Protein backbone atom coordinates (compact mmCIF):
# COMPACT_ATOMS: atom_id res chain seq x y z
CA UNK A 1 0.00 0.00 0.00
CA UNK A 2 1.26 3.47 -0.90
CA UNK A 3 1.83 6.04 1.83
CA UNK A 4 0.13 8.81 -0.15
CA UNK A 5 -1.98 8.91 -3.30
CA UNK A 6 -2.66 12.21 -5.08
CA UNK A 7 -5.97 11.89 -6.92
CA UNK A 8 -7.15 14.41 -9.52
CA UNK A 9 -10.81 14.22 -10.53
CA UNK A 10 -11.14 15.31 -14.15
CA UNK A 11 -14.18 16.22 -16.21
CA UNK A 12 -13.43 17.68 -19.63
CA UNK A 13 -10.40 19.39 -18.15
CA UNK A 14 -7.96 18.83 -21.00
CA UNK A 15 -6.82 22.46 -21.03
CA UNK A 16 -5.96 22.33 -17.32
CA UNK A 17 -4.22 18.96 -17.60
CA UNK A 18 -2.09 20.30 -20.46
CA UNK A 19 -1.22 23.33 -18.35
CA UNK A 20 -0.56 21.81 -14.92
CA UNK A 21 0.03 18.06 -15.05
CA UNK A 22 3.75 18.55 -15.62
CA UNK A 23 4.08 20.38 -12.28
CA UNK A 24 2.14 17.64 -10.50
CA UNK A 25 4.34 14.86 -11.87
CA UNK A 26 7.57 16.81 -11.39
CA UNK A 27 6.95 17.83 -7.79
CA UNK A 28 4.92 14.95 -6.35
CA UNK A 29 6.76 12.21 -4.49
CA UNK A 30 3.67 10.00 -4.32
CA UNK A 31 1.40 7.96 -6.55
CA UNK A 32 -0.51 10.21 -8.96
CA UNK A 33 -3.97 9.10 -10.07
CA UNK A 34 -6.40 10.78 -12.45
CA UNK A 35 -10.02 9.71 -12.08
CA UNK A 36 -11.99 10.68 -15.17
CA UNK A 37 -15.66 11.60 -14.74
CA UNK A 38 -16.78 10.57 -18.25
CA UNK A 39 -14.84 13.21 -20.21
CA UNK A 40 -15.37 13.62 -23.95
CA UNK A 41 -12.61 16.15 -24.70
CA UNK A 42 -9.65 13.83 -25.25
CA UNK A 43 -8.35 14.04 -21.69
CA UNK A 44 -7.67 10.31 -21.41
CA UNK A 45 -5.81 10.11 -24.72
CA UNK A 46 -3.65 13.08 -23.68
CA UNK A 47 -2.71 11.44 -20.38
CA UNK A 48 -2.03 8.05 -21.93
CA UNK A 49 0.26 9.59 -24.53
CA UNK A 50 2.10 12.10 -22.33
CA UNK A 51 1.97 10.71 -18.77
CA UNK A 52 1.95 6.91 -18.93
CA UNK A 53 3.21 6.81 -15.32
CA UNK A 54 -0.07 8.33 -14.09
CA UNK A 55 -2.66 5.77 -13.10
CA UNK A 56 -6.08 6.25 -14.71
CA UNK A 57 -9.47 5.41 -13.23
CA UNK A 58 -12.30 5.78 -15.74
CA UNK A 59 -15.85 6.40 -14.57
CA UNK A 60 -18.76 5.83 -16.94
CA UNK A 61 -20.30 9.31 -16.54
CA UNK A 62 -20.02 12.60 -14.69
CA UNK A 63 -20.84 11.87 -11.04
CA UNK A 64 -19.89 15.35 -9.88
CA UNK A 65 -17.12 16.20 -7.46
CA UNK A 66 -18.55 14.42 -4.42
CA UNK A 67 -19.66 11.06 -5.76
CA UNK A 68 -16.88 11.09 -8.36
CA UNK A 69 -14.30 11.11 -5.59
CA UNK A 70 -16.24 8.52 -3.60
CA UNK A 71 -16.15 6.12 -6.53
CA UNK A 72 -12.53 6.87 -7.42
CA UNK A 73 -11.10 6.54 -3.91
CA UNK A 74 -12.85 3.20 -3.43
CA UNK A 75 -10.28 1.95 -5.95
CA UNK A 76 -7.23 3.57 -4.29
CA UNK A 77 -5.19 2.08 -1.46
CA UNK A 78 -3.07 4.52 0.57
CA UNK A 79 -2.67 5.81 4.10
CA UNK A 80 -3.38 9.36 2.94
CA UNK A 81 -5.57 10.52 0.08
CA UNK A 82 -4.92 13.92 -1.50
CA UNK A 83 -7.85 15.42 -3.39
CA UNK A 84 -6.22 17.79 -5.89
CA UNK A 85 -7.93 19.97 -8.50
CA UNK A 86 -6.66 19.82 -12.06
CA UNK A 87 -6.16 23.62 -12.11
CA UNK A 88 -3.42 23.64 -9.46
CA UNK A 89 0.27 24.34 -9.99
CA UNK A 90 2.37 22.31 -7.58
CA UNK A 91 5.65 23.44 -6.02
CA UNK A 92 8.70 21.47 -4.95
CA UNK A 93 8.18 19.47 -1.76
CA UNK A 94 4.50 20.30 -1.35
CA UNK A 95 3.45 16.82 -0.17
CA UNK A 96 6.05 16.09 2.49
CA UNK A 97 5.30 18.84 5.08
CA UNK A 98 1.62 17.96 5.22
CA UNK A 99 2.28 14.25 5.56
CA UNK A 100 4.85 14.95 8.27
CA UNK A 101 2.31 17.04 10.16
CA UNK A 102 -0.32 14.30 9.98
CA UNK A 103 2.20 11.61 10.93
CA UNK A 104 3.17 13.62 14.00
CA UNK A 105 -0.45 14.24 15.02
CA UNK A 106 -2.63 11.14 14.58
CA UNK A 107 -5.71 13.10 15.65
CA UNK A 108 -5.45 15.31 12.54
CA UNK A 109 -7.72 13.69 9.95
CA UNK A 110 -7.69 16.45 7.32
CA UNK A 111 -5.04 19.03 6.41
CA UNK A 112 -4.57 21.62 3.67
CA UNK A 113 -1.61 23.58 2.26
CA UNK A 114 -1.46 27.34 1.73
CA UNK A 115 -3.42 28.16 -1.42
CA UNK A 116 -2.42 31.23 -3.44
CA UNK A 117 -3.73 32.63 -6.72
CA UNK A 118 -2.10 31.30 -9.86
CA UNK A 119 -2.57 34.62 -11.72
CA UNK A 120 -1.34 36.73 -8.78
CA UNK A 121 0.94 34.62 -6.65
CA UNK A 122 1.16 37.31 -3.98
CA UNK A 123 -2.49 36.90 -2.97
CA UNK A 124 -4.52 34.19 -1.26
CA UNK A 125 -6.87 32.21 -3.46
CA UNK A 126 -10.63 32.28 -3.01
CA UNK A 127 -11.22 28.55 -2.57
CA UNK A 128 -9.02 27.91 0.42
CA UNK A 129 -6.54 30.63 1.35
CA UNK A 130 -4.83 29.77 4.62
CA UNK A 131 -7.61 27.54 5.91
CA UNK A 132 -11.40 27.72 6.07
CA UNK A 133 -13.93 28.65 8.75
CA UNK A 134 -17.68 29.25 9.04
CA UNK A 135 -19.61 31.78 11.07
CA UNK A 136 -22.53 30.86 13.34
CA UNK A 137 -24.94 30.99 10.37
CA UNK A 138 -22.83 28.73 8.17
CA UNK A 139 -21.25 31.36 5.91
CA UNK A 140 -17.80 30.08 4.83
CA UNK A 141 -14.67 32.21 4.72
CA UNK A 142 -10.89 31.77 4.90
CA UNK A 143 -7.86 33.21 6.53
CA UNK A 144 -6.85 35.49 3.68
CA UNK A 145 -10.32 35.74 2.08
CA UNK A 146 -13.57 37.24 3.33
CA UNK A 147 -16.24 37.00 0.63
CA UNK A 148 -14.63 38.49 -2.51
CA UNK A 149 -11.78 40.32 -0.74
CA UNK A 150 -8.45 38.54 -1.21
CA UNK A 151 -5.58 39.54 1.06
CA UNK A 152 -1.98 39.82 -0.02
CA UNK A 153 0.22 37.09 1.49
CA UNK A 154 2.68 38.91 3.74
CA UNK A 155 3.40 35.99 6.03
CA UNK A 156 0.54 36.91 8.37
CA UNK A 157 -0.89 33.38 8.19
CA UNK A 158 2.33 31.37 8.27
CA UNK A 159 1.42 29.73 11.58
CA UNK A 160 0.17 26.16 11.55
CA UNK A 161 -3.24 25.99 13.23
CA UNK A 162 -6.52 24.14 13.49
CA UNK A 163 -9.19 25.24 11.03
CA UNK A 164 -12.84 24.42 10.48
CA UNK A 165 -12.62 23.22 6.87
CA UNK A 166 -9.94 22.40 4.32
CA UNK A 167 -10.32 23.24 0.65
CA UNK A 168 -11.37 20.48 -1.71
CA UNK A 169 -8.89 21.94 -4.21
CA UNK A 170 -6.02 20.41 -2.21
CA UNK A 171 -7.25 18.35 0.72
CA UNK A 172 -5.14 15.72 2.49
CA UNK A 173 -7.34 13.12 4.20
CA UNK A 174 -6.45 10.19 6.43
CA UNK A 175 -7.89 7.26 4.49
CA UNK A 176 -9.12 5.49 7.62
CA UNK A 177 -11.26 8.51 8.55
CA UNK A 178 -12.51 8.89 4.98
CA UNK A 179 -13.76 5.30 5.14
CA UNK A 180 -15.09 5.74 8.68
CA UNK A 181 -17.29 8.65 7.56
CA UNK A 182 -18.25 7.25 4.16
CA UNK A 183 -16.44 9.94 2.16
CA UNK A 184 -18.19 12.99 0.77
CA UNK A 185 -21.98 13.32 0.66
CA UNK A 186 -22.64 12.21 -2.91
CA UNK A 187 -26.05 13.90 -2.97
CA UNK A 188 -24.33 17.29 -2.88
CA UNK A 189 -22.87 16.69 -6.39
CA UNK A 190 -20.54 19.69 -6.07
CA UNK A 191 -19.91 22.71 -3.81
CA UNK A 192 -19.90 22.79 0.02
CA UNK A 193 -19.18 19.05 0.10
CA UNK A 194 -15.71 19.49 1.60
CA UNK A 195 -17.06 21.80 4.32
CA UNK A 196 -19.76 19.29 5.16
CA UNK A 197 -17.14 16.52 5.27
CA UNK A 198 -14.88 18.52 7.59
CA UNK A 199 -17.83 19.29 9.86
CA UNK A 200 -18.50 15.57 10.10
CA UNK A 201 -14.81 15.05 10.84
CA UNK A 202 -15.15 17.46 13.79
CA UNK A 203 -18.36 15.78 14.95
CA UNK A 204 -16.50 12.45 14.95
CA UNK A 205 -13.84 13.91 17.27
CA UNK A 206 -10.99 14.43 14.79
CA UNK A 207 -9.03 17.59 13.92
CA UNK A 208 -8.71 19.63 10.71
CA UNK A 209 -5.48 21.58 10.25
CA UNK A 210 -3.51 23.99 8.04
CA UNK A 211 0.13 23.50 7.01
CA UNK A 212 1.77 26.70 5.70
CA UNK A 213 5.02 25.00 4.72
CA UNK A 214 3.22 23.53 1.69
CA UNK A 215 2.28 26.05 -1.01
CA UNK A 216 0.14 25.61 -4.13
CA UNK A 217 -1.16 28.00 -6.80
CA UNK A 218 -4.79 27.61 -7.86
CA UNK A 219 -6.63 29.02 -10.87
CA UNK A 220 -10.15 28.38 -9.51
CA UNK A 221 -13.52 28.33 -11.26
CA UNK A 222 -12.33 25.85 -13.85
CA UNK A 223 -15.55 23.79 -14.00
CA UNK A 224 -18.28 26.38 -13.44
CA UNK A 225 -17.85 30.15 -13.80
CA UNK A 226 -18.23 32.32 -10.71
CA UNK A 227 -21.66 33.61 -11.80
CA UNK A 228 -23.74 30.58 -12.79
CA UNK A 229 -27.33 29.73 -11.74
CA UNK A 230 -26.53 26.02 -11.33
CA UNK A 231 -23.59 26.87 -9.08
CA UNK A 232 -25.82 29.23 -7.09
CA UNK A 233 -28.42 26.50 -6.71
CA UNK A 234 -25.85 23.99 -5.47
CA UNK A 235 -24.29 26.43 -3.01
CA UNK A 236 -27.58 27.49 -1.40
CA UNK A 237 -29.11 23.99 -1.32
CA UNK A 238 -25.99 22.30 -0.01
CA UNK A 239 -25.31 24.94 2.63
CA UNK A 240 -28.78 24.53 4.14
CA UNK A 241 -28.44 20.74 3.97
CA UNK A 242 -25.06 20.88 5.70
CA UNK A 243 -26.51 22.99 8.51
CA UNK A 244 -29.45 20.64 9.01
CA UNK A 245 -27.15 17.61 9.19
CA UNK A 246 -24.43 18.99 11.44
CA UNK A 247 -25.76 21.67 13.78
CA UNK A 248 -26.33 20.69 17.42
CA UNK A 249 -29.99 20.52 18.42
CA UNK A 250 -29.94 23.68 20.53
CA UNK A 251 -28.86 25.78 17.52
CA UNK A 252 -30.37 24.07 14.50
CA UNK A 253 -33.83 25.61 14.23
CA UNK A 254 -32.98 29.26 14.88
CA UNK A 255 -29.90 29.13 12.64
CA UNK A 256 -31.85 27.54 9.78
CA UNK A 257 -34.76 29.98 10.20
CA UNK A 258 -32.33 32.89 10.04
CA UNK A 259 -30.50 31.46 7.03
CA UNK A 260 -33.73 30.87 5.10
CA UNK A 261 -34.66 34.52 5.67
CA UNK A 262 -31.21 35.75 4.67
CA UNK A 263 -31.32 33.55 1.55
CA UNK A 264 -34.60 35.21 0.53
CA UNK A 265 -32.98 38.61 0.95
CA UNK A 266 -30.11 37.45 -1.27
CA UNK A 267 -32.59 36.17 -3.87
CA UNK A 268 -34.39 39.54 -3.97
CA UNK A 269 -31.04 41.26 -4.36
CA UNK A 270 -30.28 39.03 -7.36
CA UNK A 271 -33.66 39.95 -8.88
CA UNK A 272 -33.23 43.69 -8.30
CA UNK A 273 -29.80 43.52 -9.97
CA UNK A 274 -31.30 41.85 -13.04
CA UNK A 275 -30.00 38.34 -12.33
CA UNK A 276 -33.27 36.46 -12.74
CA UNK A 277 -31.50 33.13 -13.25
CA UNK A 278 -29.73 33.47 -9.90
CA UNK A 279 -33.02 34.45 -8.21
CA UNK A 280 -34.76 31.35 -9.58
CA UNK A 281 -31.75 29.24 -8.55
CA UNK A 282 -32.17 30.23 -4.89
CA UNK A 283 -35.87 29.39 -5.01
CA UNK A 284 -35.11 26.01 -6.57
CA UNK A 285 -32.44 25.38 -3.95
CA UNK A 286 -34.99 25.93 -1.17
CA UNK A 287 -37.48 23.57 -2.82
CA UNK A 288 -34.86 20.86 -3.15
CA UNK A 289 -33.71 21.36 0.44
CA UNK A 290 -37.27 20.88 1.71
CA UNK A 291 -37.67 17.75 -0.43
CA UNK A 292 -34.43 16.38 1.03
CA UNK A 293 -35.56 16.76 4.66
CA UNK A 294 -36.43 13.07 5.31
CA UNK A 295 -33.06 11.90 3.96
CA UNK A 296 -31.22 14.65 5.83
CA UNK A 297 -32.89 13.62 9.07
CA UNK A 298 -31.54 10.08 8.68
CA UNK A 299 -28.04 11.42 7.96
CA UNK A 300 -28.25 13.70 10.98
CA UNK A 301 -29.15 10.82 13.27
CA UNK A 302 -26.09 8.92 12.05
CA UNK A 303 -23.80 11.93 12.62
CA UNK A 304 -25.00 12.74 16.17
CA UNK A 305 -24.07 16.46 16.03
CA UNK A 306 -22.39 18.28 18.90
CA UNK A 307 -20.64 21.60 19.46
CA UNK A 308 -17.43 21.63 17.46
CA UNK A 309 -14.36 23.91 17.48
CA UNK A 310 -13.34 26.72 15.11
CA UNK A 311 -16.82 28.15 14.48
CA UNK A 312 -16.83 31.97 14.39
CA UNK A 313 -19.49 33.26 16.77
CA UNK A 314 -19.80 36.62 15.03
CA UNK A 315 -22.02 37.48 12.06
CA UNK A 316 -19.85 37.62 8.95
CA UNK A 317 -22.39 39.58 6.88
CA UNK A 318 -22.53 42.32 9.51
CA UNK A 319 -18.76 42.36 9.98
CA UNK A 320 -18.02 42.59 6.27
CA UNK A 321 -20.82 44.70 4.79
CA UNK A 322 -21.76 46.98 7.69
CA UNK A 323 -18.60 47.23 9.81
CA UNK A 324 -16.26 47.06 6.77
CA UNK A 325 -14.03 44.38 8.27
CA UNK A 326 -12.47 42.93 5.14
CA UNK A 327 -9.51 41.00 6.58
CA UNK A 328 -9.56 37.88 8.73
CA UNK A 329 -7.51 39.69 11.37
CA UNK A 330 -10.23 42.37 11.58
CA UNK A 331 -12.82 39.95 12.97
CA UNK A 332 -13.67 40.61 16.59
CA UNK A 333 -15.94 37.70 17.55
CA UNK A 334 -14.66 34.61 19.32
CA UNK A 335 -14.27 31.10 17.89
CA UNK A 336 -15.64 28.03 19.65
CA UNK A 337 -13.02 25.91 21.40
How would you describe this protein?
The protein is α/β, with parallel strands linked by helices. The protein has two domains: 2-218, Alpha-Beta Complex (Spore Coat Polysaccharide Biosynthesis Protein SpsA, Chain A), CATH 3.90.550; 229-306. The chain has helices at 14-27, 43-50, 64-73, 96-104, 175-181, 193-203, 229-246, 249-272, 276-303, 316-322, and strands spanning 2-10, 31-37, 55-59, 78-84, 88-89, 108-117, 132-135, 140-142, 145-146, 149-150, 161-162, 170-174, 207-218, 311-312. The strands form three sheets. Strands 1, 2, 3, 4, 5, 6, 11, 12 and 13 form a nine-stranded mixed beta sheet that branches. Strands 8-7-14 form a three-stranded mixed beta sheet, with no helix packed on it. Strands 9-10 form a two-stranded antiparallel sheet. Helix 8 runs antiparallel to helix 9. The relative contact order is 0.13. The model has no long low-confidence stretch (mean pLDDT 96).
Amino acid sequence: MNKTAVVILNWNGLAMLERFMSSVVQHTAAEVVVADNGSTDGSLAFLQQNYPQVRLITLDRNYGFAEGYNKALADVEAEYYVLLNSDVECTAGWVEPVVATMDAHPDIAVCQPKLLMYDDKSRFEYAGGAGGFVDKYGYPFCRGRLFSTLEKDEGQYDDACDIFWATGAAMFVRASVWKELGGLDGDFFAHIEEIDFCWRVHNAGHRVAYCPQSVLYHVGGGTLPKSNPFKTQLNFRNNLSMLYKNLPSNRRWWVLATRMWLDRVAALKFLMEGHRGEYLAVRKAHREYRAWKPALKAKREAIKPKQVPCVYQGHLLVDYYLLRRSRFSDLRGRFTD
